[in-house]
Amino acid sequence: MKAAVLHAPNDLRLEEIADPIPGDGEVVVAPKACGICQTDYLAITGGRMNWDPGSVMGHEFAGVITEVGPRVTGWEVGDEVVVSPVGTCGRCRHCQAGMQHYCVDGYVIGGDGQPRFYNGAFAERCKAPATSLFLKPPSLSFEAAALTEPLAGSYKGMIAYSQMTVGEDVVILGVGSMGLLLTQVASAAGAGTLIAMDLVEGRLAMARECGATHTINGAHEDVKQRIYEILPEGPDLVFEAAGALAAAELTFDLCRRGTRVNIFGVIIPGTVPVSPRDIHFMEIRMDASFSVTPTVMRKSLKLQETGLVDTSKIITHRFPLEAIHDAVAAMEREDRVKVVVTV
Length: 343
Known about the structure:
CATH architecture of the largest domain: Alpha-Beta Complex
CATH class of the largest domain: Alpha Beta
Helix content: 25-40%
Shape: globular
Mean pLDDT: 96
CATH topology of the largest domain: Quinone Oxidoreductase, Chain A, domain 1
Radius of gyration: 20 Å
Number of domains: 2
Strand content: 25-35%
Order of helices and strands: EEEHEEEEHEEEEHHEHEHEHEHEHEHEHE
Distance between the termini: 12 Å
């Protein structure tokens, strides 16, 4: 079968490899669509090195079961599925406490963050444990369903962790793919004033389509001044979704007494100045969120199935597997939000 195999940084080869063989409790899935995550891009370009040469990336995907291994029940060849890239043992204290993404003996399909690795979905077929499968609603396209995992992460951060409630005033700093999904989640959950900030005008236009009531271009406006013009009493909740230290610093600068913050996007090393005294007397409550759990994967599917969130709105570029190098190159484009590889 064809697969995009990563041999070394900037050495991604489309080549023929052996078909996966399912073991006990495993199935083979033919991916129909797979999103490119920033973590995939960092692996391919050398931004992260926690992978072995010869790996196949791609962890945001949906497809069709083509083979069922021994001791698999409830799934059949031909079933259309969404695959969670994060798998768990179900036995450790983290799994039993409902924090499966902390699993000490978990696995990841085509991504990172877990001790065991399965080749991912930048391929014609890939292997997956049956416990990682969710039935794809018939109303969802494969492209939209492929983004179930990033939407699940957005729901987990905005609702499960930061507990946004109806009528709250929300600021989202950075509206790339995750910021736009956060915008849709906040809008669906009944945010009052919903402000999106970015440096790219095209992304701000998409944010308005995703439910933002106000947008701010940080390249041309004083962000704090503009936010406090819109919200004289300040925001209830600020989400850092830009993945930049400057945005993390701005997050705290926007706080008034009682503001909650979520450091959602920063995945680069470094520090920002934060005053413990200000946190104490302003009662700033901080949160963060990474990865997904089975609970939020199911919530994500429900949001899509009911039409509360439309993940297809954020897809800007589509490429077949044969054009994987063009897909990776598109990650550098300013007009890029979400790139999807179809198989």
